[in-house]
Specification:
Largest sheet: 2 strands, antiparallel
Radius of gyration: 54 Å
Helix content: over 70%
Number of strands: 2
Number of helices: 5
Distance between the termini: 159 Å
Length: 179
């Protein structure tokens, strides 16, 4: 069926039907088969297309006014969807900006974390050096205490020897072999 025949079937102008068809072509051909097709400026409809158009218009649309109202409703729905899409895109943009900001902050935090890890490593090395120095100093302190104790013991032995020599009678000091 051509455009003129289909328009006569619906009792509307060819312009109204053509406009309606263009706006609803995806719905008319929704099952994956081509039911309405424009070839070199001429529209062709099969029986299924006519049934789908009737269904879209609410069973046997008889007036151009009803088709125009339906088209207007479709336009409003399209405008509403466009507004929703615009809002969704704005939200996506905000989310993307927030994500970029979060990634920037994350990068800064990663850099700070790397710096802190490096500082921690340096501090751990310094602590290890201090502990080694402390151990060395403790060992030296123990050696010094032992040395002082050995000197004190040697001094005590010498002092005892000196005291024994002092306590000997004078003749034993002059003549060590006499009794």
């Amino acid at each position: 069926m051509n455009l003129q025949e289909a328009a006569a079937h619906f009792h509307i102008t060819t312009d109204s039907l053509e406009e309606f068809t263009r706006k609803n072509l995806d719905r008319i051909n929704r099952d994956g088969e081509i039911h309405a097709l424009e070839i070199q400026g001429q529209w062709a409809y099969d029986g299924t297309a006519i049934d789908i158009i009737e269904e879209l218009k609410g069973l046997h649309v008889d007036t151009a006014e009803e088709i125009a109202t339906a088209a207007n409703s479709s336009e409003k729905k399209a405008e509403s969807l466009q507004a929703q899409l615009t809002t969704a895109l704005a939200e996506m943009t905000q989310t993307a900006l927030a994500l970029v900001d979060a990634e920037r902050r994350n990068s800064a935090q990663q850099a700070e974390l790397a710096t802190l890890r490096e500082r921690t490593k340096i501090q751990a090395e310094q602590i290890a050096k201090l502990e080694a120095t402390k151990a060395r100093l403790e060992k030296q302190a123990l050696e010094s205490i032992q040395y002082q104790a050995d000197l004190k013991a040697e001094r005590a032995l010498l002092q005892e020897k000196i005291n024994r020599e002092r306590n000997k009678p004078w003749w034993k000091r002059i003549f060590p072999g006499s009794s």
